[in-house]
Design brief:
The chain has 16 helices and no strands. The protein has helices at residues 4-22, 30-44, 50-69, 74-83, 85-105, 110-121, 125-135, 139-166, 171-181, 185-195, 197-211, 214-225, 243-260, 265-292, 296-301, 304-326. The protein is mainly alpha-helical and 333 residues long. It is globular.
């Protein structure tokens, strides 16, 4: 049976890429099913390519987000990102502040508490990866925070679309809620994709604008939170996800190239549309691989209190944003 495991894993990976492409009705539930299938496969049977999938999921995720930029207009991206600026600032301030208080209340180690708070407030694994060097966090603290945030992202892929439909959210409303209430970019894209094209456009752009807050938050942590090494001065440590400028560049290319070279308009539009569609199905494959990266060992590294901190923080923030949008306090443009 063990000999069949690699073949079955590859077959499932291919299926999550091809089936949604060929069979349109599956696109509504494929993102959530993909990450769940990846988790179950890895935890119950073991990921036969764990060393490989753990390396390729991050660049593959970045490539899919850049690919989606080829199907969007730059002005729409700027408008959507700018309109969510104030909401993002409020959410990050509230998330890190509440997360810090929860960490003290639950007596969680300082670095672990900050990693969970930053991951929940900004953009999941990318924010944790950026903040960890500044905090000089230990490997088990990083793994714990990443696993906690990742598990909640997997839940969000199922819960957010269900609640959104029950509350009658429009696609722009859901796009805002997903971008503000879900941690990781991949899960925002996956949930928004299942809700509709407009939700996907707004969710992706507002989420990427939110991810840019990695820079000032990491600077803040480096200067005010992290303790300098003995005998050394404080230093700044920045790590901006490369897919953010890549996404903007892709949108700029399909926006301005047809204006500069009118003869290329049809080719650019057709190519951009194809790359956007291709990226959507690659994202579903990526979600399966991300799920498969949650091994039994990572589950064992999860402590109860950091998980409790992440769950409480996520529920509070997601509920506040949901109610704010539902009651009209946050208006989707």
């Amino acid at each position: 049976m063990q000999k069949l495991k690699p073949a079955l894993f590859l077959l499932l990976s291919l299926a999550f890429f091809l089936v949604p492409w060929i069979w349109a009705p599956s696109r509504n539930w494929a993102p959530g099913l993909a990450v769940l299938a990846g988790i179950l496969f890895s935890v119950l049977w073991g990921n036969p390519f764990l060393a490989y999938t753990s390396r390729i999921t991050s660049p593959l995720l970045g490539a899919t987000i850049v690919g989606m930029g080829f199907g969007m207009k730059l002005m729409e991206v700027i408008k959507a990102g700018g309109s969510g600026f104030l909401y993002t600032l409020i959410g990050i301030t509230l998330g890190i502040g509440l997360g810090t208080l929860l960490g003290k209340w639950l007596k969680i180690p300082r670095n672990a508490s900050y990693l969970v708070s930053v991951g929940t407030s900004i953009c999941g694994g990318s924010a944790i990866a950026a903040a960890a060097p500044a905090l000089r966090a230990k490997s088990h603290e990083i793994a714990m925070a990443s696993a906690t945030v990742f598990a909640l992202n997997a839940v969000a892929l199922w819960v957010f679309p269900f609640v959104g439909h029950k509350l009658g959210f429009t696609e722009p409303q859901f796009g805002y809620w997903a971008a503000l209430g879900i941690h990781d970019t991949s899960s925002v894209v996956g949930a928004s994709m299942a809700y509709g094209e407009e939700a996907l456009r707004i969710g992706t752009t507002v989420k990427l604008a939110r991810a840019l807050w990695i820079v000032p938050v990491t600077l803040f942590i480096s200067w005010f939170v992290a303790e300098p090494e003995e005998g050394k001065k404080r230093r700044f440590s920045l790590k901006v996800p490369w897919f953010i400028p890549g996404f903007i560049a892709a949108a700029a290319l399909v926006t301005f190239l047809p204006q500069w070279l009118p003869a290329t308009k049809e080719v650019v539009m057709a190519t951009g549309g194809f790359l956007k569609e291709l990226s959507k199905f690659l994202m579903i494959l990526t979600l399966f691989l991300i799920g498969a990266n949650l091994s039994r060992q990572k589950l064992k590294e999860l402590g109860l209190r950091p998980v409790l901190q992440g769950v409480i923080l996520w529920i509070v923030l997601a509920t506040l944003w949901c109610l704010s949008i539902h009651w009209g306090w946050v208006k989707a443009l």
